[in-house]
Amino acid sequence: MLKRLRQSLTAGTASKRNQFFPEIPLAGFGFLTHFVWEMLQVPWYQGMAEESHGSVVWLCIRATGGDVLIFLLSFWASSILCGNRRWLLEGDRKPALIVVTIALLATIVLEWLATGPLERWAYADSMPIIMLLEVGLTPLLQWVLLLPLLLWLTRRHMLGRIALRSDSTV
After folding, report:
1. What digits encode the pLDDT tens for the residues 85-140?
2. pLDDT for 73
């Protein structure tokens, strides 16, 4: 099976044409996991406990959409910087580190703006704050913990799909 998998990864343009976009599973897995994370961190944001359930869910859906956008933009930037969109299939770790770094930097800037000058939201007293950055800990942990999981899930999904296709052509 590994031999067929390697062959399909290095096959010609016909195989590459049949590949689906990695953005689809990245966005799908990203939405599911980030939404759960957003819902779990509700207690660390000021005023969320007083909001209606529907209002909180809607806020978390919107935040999750932003998370998925950050994730996809980070993936694209990493692919451009490394000159390879297939790095996820090939298991290259350098682009993955770039994705995490870009997502973390974007989150630091967006959280700082939203809780500072723009006053879009505020942290509850229970939110651990990283003093040097003036940003909450949970938004940063979100990227450090979820991104490797998401990249792994997406890679496994894509490799499984390739393996299933190669099994059906044998």
Report:
1. 889 998 889 999 999 999 999 999 999 999 999 999 999 999 999 999 999 999 99
2. 98
CB neighbour list of residue 121: distance below 8 Å, 6 or more residues apart: 45, 46, 114, 115
Determine the pLDDT at residue 161.
Answer: 87
Instruction: In whole angstroms, give the CA distance from residue 6 to residue 110.
Output: 40
Strand partners, 135: 130
CB contact at 8 A, 24 and 158: no
Other beta carbons within 10 angstroms of residue 164's beta carbon come to 10
SS3 41: coil
Please state, in angstroms and as integers, the Cα–Cα distance from residue 22 to each residue in 75, 83, 119, 139, following that order: 10, 15, 35, 24
Residue 82 CB neighbours (<10 A): 15
Phi, psi of 117 (to 5 degrees): -60, -35
* Cβ neighbours of residue 37 closer than 8 Å, sequence gap 6 or more: 67, 142, 146
